[in-house]
Amino acid sequence: MFGDMMNMMGKLKETQQKVEDTKKRLDTVLIDESSNDKKLKITLTANRTIKTIEIDDELLEDKEQLEDYLILTLNKAIEKATKVNEAELAAVAKEGMPSIPGMDFFK
């Protein structure tokens, strides 16, 4: 029993390291999003760090319109990045979880 517990602890540490490695890798996964008319383009990482924002000069003439574009486009980009982030981290966590009857939370 003690050996099983040590083995499980080793697997948990290994899984923790894989999760940390995946988080670092997600810093290099870029998500691109743009407004429907392509006047605003945003790139962020799968860890939801904004990398670039490109704004068409036409949008600079109307502050309220620019704000609306930023809110809509940033929210779409963040939603996409969150889905990628959660899927990647869930896959790593599920891979490292021991098989315990009745504890299949990650199915």
Automatic annotation (TrEMBL):
Xref: InterPro entries = YbaB-like_sf (IPR036894), YbaB/EbfC (IPR004401)
Cellular localisation: Cytoplasm, Nucleoid
Q: Which organism is it from?
A: Aestuariibaculum suncheonense
Name it. Answer: Nucleoid-associated protein ICJ84_07605
Q: Which domain of life is it from?
A: Bacteria
**Family indicated by similarity:** Belongs to the YbaB/EbfC family.
Q: What is the lineage of its organism?
A: Bacteria, Pseudomonadati, Bacteroidota, Flavobacteriia, Flavobacteriales
Q: GO MF terms on file?
A: DNA binding
Among SUPFAM superfamilies, the record links this protein to: YbaB-like (SSF82607)
Q: Which residues, by range, are in coiled-coil regions? A: 5-32
Relate the protein's function as given in its record: Binds to DNA and alters its conformation. May be involved in regulation of gene expression, nucleoid organization and DNA protection.
Assembly, per entry: Homodimer.
UniProt GO cellular component terms: bacterial nucleoid; cytoplasm
HAMAP family, alphabetically?
DNA_YbaB_EbfC
